[in-house]
Design brief:
The complex is a heterodimer of chains A (about 90) and B (about 800). With about 90 residues, chain A is mostly helical. Chain A contains 3 helices and no strands. Chain A has helices spanning about 1-25, 30-55, 60-85. In chain A, helix 1 (about 1-25) packs antiparallel against helix 2 (about 30-55) and helix 2 (about 30-55) runs antiparallel to helix 3 (about 60-85). The longest helix of chain A is centred in the middle third of the chain and has 26 residues, at about 30-55. Chain A starts with a helix and ends in a 10-residue tail after the last helix. A two-stranded antiparallel sheet of chain B has the order 1-2. In chain B, strand 1 (about 60-65) and strand 2 form a beta hairpin. Chain B starts with a helix and ends in a 9-residue tail after the last helix. The chains are: A mainly alpha (about 90), B mainly alpha (about 800). Chains A and B meet through helix 1, helix 2 and helix 3 of A and helix 30, helix 31 and helix 32 of B.
């Protein structure tokens, strides 16, 4: 019963991921794609979590944390790029 | 190391000190120091005469590369001694001549004598080596030193052209010989010429034996200027005259004859040998004498005359091979041809050497060698005229000089062999005597021409760059020595017959000797009213008539179109070769990375697919495949569709985002396939590289940031599809056929016990196989340093702001 629930949840996340993926390809603006990518990262977190339950292991908890950080950093980087065209600004005083 | 090795290497060792002598003692002409070497050698080698006369041979061994069977083994028999005496004897005379010919102040004597001594060693090495690789070594050294000597006046364009031409042609032949040596030594298992001869019976039937034969003959023909490889010799006349006299008449061009004579015992049983050597020789005789008549340059005439005479000797060596094909041991049947070859070889060296020196004297004293400008020098240069007279009459084959005797023997040999019933000769053997007689007629014509145009007729002092006068005595002595030899041999030919000729002939035809046949050399001036006597009369008469009517038919030569001349063909061949290689290079090396990638991928696909097909290597087994889950399929779909979308993406930014999606999906695969460490690393690396892509993308110039799709090219699509197919096939095939069990079991068992760790991936990385990790770290360090230097040490200016 529990297993079936997990699989259903996994299927749902996959479906949402496909939808997000459609948005990444389709666009139309870069911002749409970036947000889709960020959400894909979050879906990844849930997939990894569900898979850890299926595989009955706690080895992937680090991966979950990491994806969380990276998705954040990546989205910030993209946003900064879209806004300023640069990710790391040069220190003008040097 | 023996005295003989010392004798061979003496000239090149002395040559090390020549530049020093030339620089330190400029008051004495360097040639005087050099002269000692050949004189010493000629006296050393003449000590062997009594020995070789009684059939003795002398060998000495010096280990060089014993593990490869290459030892410097010298072998001196009648043939080797004959050549050694020619080389050192004429070498002495040429050095003496060059002392007076070359001006100590104007010329760089040091280099000249270094090259000349180098050549002398090379030539002695060729004729005295028994090991074929050593023979080849010295053979190439003759080519190189000849190249250096021809281009002695390197600032002249013609000299460089002649040197390059002779180098290309003779080295081509030399390399052919190397191939022949490789085949022959593989067949016989030995690099020694004598041992190869001893094991002849077992190798004669081999199919590659004839290939070796042809390769050896290529070497001999190119070196000895046989048709159609004769074209380098006339251009080699740009060398100083002592060089022409020494290399291009007496010694180096005879290296090919030596090779034919030396390998006669091995190859002469093949009928192909007989056909090739005799027909090429006889045609060269005809062609050389035909072309000699149209030359205007004295040395040009002599060059073509040398070609023709070498052809004569070559054809005699070929005809002499017929002696091996008769079982009945008649007295000297067909061996007369070989005897005549050796006899004429000696005679040619004497008279052609003297004629070249005469041409050098004329050039030296009048400033020109053009026979159209020369004339009437008889009163001014009586001694030179005498030399020229004797030399040319001997060359034309007029009694009582030695050329007459060898030409008679040549005719005898030609008639005897072409009249035999061997090798289909009855059907078209008549061509040989016809070509021989026609060649001799033209020889007669140009021989008269040389003397007549140079020394008789009207003097044209206004045409000459210098006021002509007789040469200094030192310049006259060497040719005088040679022409006195011409006369002495002419009058007393039997002086040579037992001392030099018979041992040499016995070395060329050991089969005849082994079978108990006797080689009886007896040269007579008068042998009765035979056919050859009447042929000689015919040659003289027709030659005289042709000479008298020369102005009327000489224009016929100009009728021959230039396009079919061999020189023109040679030049065209070089030019076309260069053009073709440039064109190939230009089409293949486009300078675009994309075309090289097409080549690389194309070859990978072709090689792997043909290998898969040719070795029947493709297998597909179902049992190693584990069960597939639905989420794996979905993930694969995401991966494939994002990868495909990259190729169709309209903007680069989309591509970068899609690349990120691909990377994250791969990370998810790692999760599914239970590789947490890989998943962690993959996620971080993917994020960093996407960030880097963004960084680079921003730096692109405005114009190339234009948003457009990757243009579709059928070829590229095809190749990428094929590469994908190939890789897939290989992956499936290798998955389906595992030869061994995995070694992973060992790691699983020992990860805790031996390495005290729980994480197996990390234990492998830092413990079991930490060495790889070390160098991966090094790679990362290098990449970091590389990026740092590339950014920091940019070229300032130019592209930078």
């Amino acid at each position: 019963m529990f297993d079936i629930l997990i699989y259903v949840a996994l299927g749902g996340v996959f479906l949402s991921m496909l939808g997000l993926f459609y948005r990444v390809i389709k666009g139309p603006s870069v911002a749409d794609r970036v947000i889709a990518l960020d959400s894909i990262g979050i879906s990844l977190i849930s997939i990894v979590g569900l898979v850890s339950i299926i595989l009955r292991t706690s080895d992937y908890l680090e991966v979950i944390l990491l994806i969380g950080i990276l998705a954040f950093i990546g989205t910030v980087a993209f946003s900064k790029y879209i806004e300023k065209g640069e990710i790391i600004e040069r220190d003008r005083n040097q | 190391m023996s005295v003989m090795h010392g004798a061979i290497l003496l000239p090149i060792l002395i040559s090390l000190f020549i530049p020093l002598l030339a620089k330190r003692i400029p008051t004495i002409h360097t040639g005087w120091f050099v002269l000692v070497v050949p004189v010493l050698l000629v006296s050393y080698f003449s000590r062997f005469l009594p020995g070789t006369m009684s059939g003795e041979t002398y060998t000495a061994r010096m280990p060089w590369l014993p593990s490869l069977g290459i030892d410097f083994v010298t072998y001196l028999d009648g043939l080797g001694l004959l050549f050694a005496l020619l080389i050192t004897g004429i070498g002495s005379l040429v050095v003496l001549y060059s002392i007076f010919y070359l001006d100590a102040k104007k010329e760089s004597l040091g280099t000249f004598y270094v090259y000349l001594l180098m050549f002398m060693t090379a030539m002695l090495g060729v004729v005295l080596s028994d090991n074929m690789v050593v023979l080849y070594l010295f053979w190439e050294l003759t080519s190189i030193s000849s190249f250096l000597l021809i281009a002695y006046w390197y600032e002249r364009e013609r000299s460089r052209y002649g040197a390059q031409k002779s180098m290309l042609i003779t080295v081509f032949g030399g390399l052919a010989m190397l191939g022949g040596i490789a085949i022959l030594s593989t067949l016989s298992g030995s690099l020694s010429i004598r041992e190869t001869y001893a094991s002849l019976a077992s190798i004669q039937g081999e199919p590659f034996f004839t290939v070796a034969l042809v390769l050896f003959l290529l070497a001999a023909f190119t070196k000895s200027a046989q048709f159609p490889f004769h074209i380098w010799l006339p251009d080699a006349m740009e060398a100083p005259t002592p060089v022409s006299a020494y290399l291009h008449s007496a010694t180096m061009v005879k290296a090919g004859l030596y090779l034919v004579a030396r390998f006669s015992p091995i190859f002469a049983d093949e009928s192909l040998w007989f056909y090739l050597v005799s027909s090429v020789g006889i045609f060269t005789l005809f062609w050389g004498s035909l072309n000699a008549v149209k030359q205007h340059d004295l040395k040009g005439i002599l060059a073509y005359s040398t070609i023709s005479q070498l052809g004569l000797i070559m054809s005699l060596l070929g005809l002499g091979a017929a002696a091996l094909h008769v079982d009945v041991l008649d007295d000297g049947l067909y061996t007369i041809a070989t005897v005549a070859a050796i006899f004429h070889l000696i005679n040619h060296a004497t008279f052609k050497g003297s004629l070249f020196m005469m041409a050098g004297i004329v050039d030296h004293e009048t400033g020109t060698r053009d026979i159209r400008k020369l004339g009437g020098l008889a009163q001014l240069m009586p001694i030179s005229m005498t030399i020229a007279m004797i030399g040319t009459l001997s060359m034309a084959g007029i009694p009582p000089f030695n050329g007459f005797l060898s030409k008679e023997m040549f005719l005898t040999g030609v008639l005897e062999v072409s009249g035999s019933d061997l090798f289909n000769l009855p059907s078209y053997g008549w061509i040989i005597p016809v070509l021989a007689v026609v060649g001799s007629i033209f020889t007669f014509v140009y021989s008269i021409l040389i003397v007549r145009k140079t020394f008789f007729g009207k003097r044209q002092d206004d045409q000459l760059p210098k006021t002509p006068h007789e040469a200094p005595i030192g310049m006259l002595i060497p040719p005088l020595v040679l022409v006195s030899l011409v006369v002495i041999i002419g009058l007393f030919p039997n002086l040579l017959s037992n001392t030099l000729i018979r041992p040499a002939v016995e070395a060329i035809l050991p089969q005849v000797v082994d079978a108990g046949g006797k080689i009886d050399v007896h040269i007579t001036m008068w042998h009765g009213f035979k056919l050859e006597f009447f042929l000689t009369l015919l040659i003289f008469t027709v030659g005289f008539i042709l000479y008298k009517t020369l102005p009327r038919w000489q224009s016929l030569y100009n009728r021959m179109p230039r396009a079919i001349s061999l020189n023109h063909q040679y030049d065209a061949l070089l030019r076309r070769g260069e053009q073709t290689s440039t064109r190939i290079h230009d089409t293949v090396m486009t300078g675009y990375m994309r075309s090289y990638l097409v080549y690389i991928f194309g070859f990978i696909v072709i090689l792997i697919l043909t290998a898969l097909y040719g070795f029947d290597a493709f297998r597909f087994a179902v049992d190693p495949i584990s069960s597939i889950h639905a989420y794996e399929i979905i993930l694969a779909l995401v991966l494939v569709s994002s990868a495909l979308s990259i190729t169709f993406a309209r903007s680069r930014l989309t591509s970068i985002i899609l690349l990120g999606v691909t990377g994250y999906t791969v990370a998810l695969f790692f999760v599914l396939f239970r590789a947490p460490d890989l998943a962690l690393t993959q996620l971080v690396i993917e994020t960093v590289s996407v960030a880097l892509f963004l960084l680079v993308f921003y730096r692109l110039p405005e114009i190339s940031r234009k948003e457009e799709r990757i243009p579709f090219k059928l070829g590229n699509a095809l190749i990428s599809a094929l590469v994908g197919l190939t890789v897939t096939l290989v992956a499936l095939a290798s998955l389906s056929q595992r030869s061994f069990a995995s070694i992973a079991k060992y790691y699983i068992d020992n990860v805790a016990d031996l390495a005290a760790g729980g994480n197996m991936v990390n234990v492998i990385l830092v413990d079991f196989r930490g060495f790889d990790t070390l160098f991966e770290i090094a790679v990362l360090a290098l990449a970091g340093i590389g990026i740092f230097t590339m950014i920091k040490f940019r070229r300032t200016g130019g592209m930078d702001k």
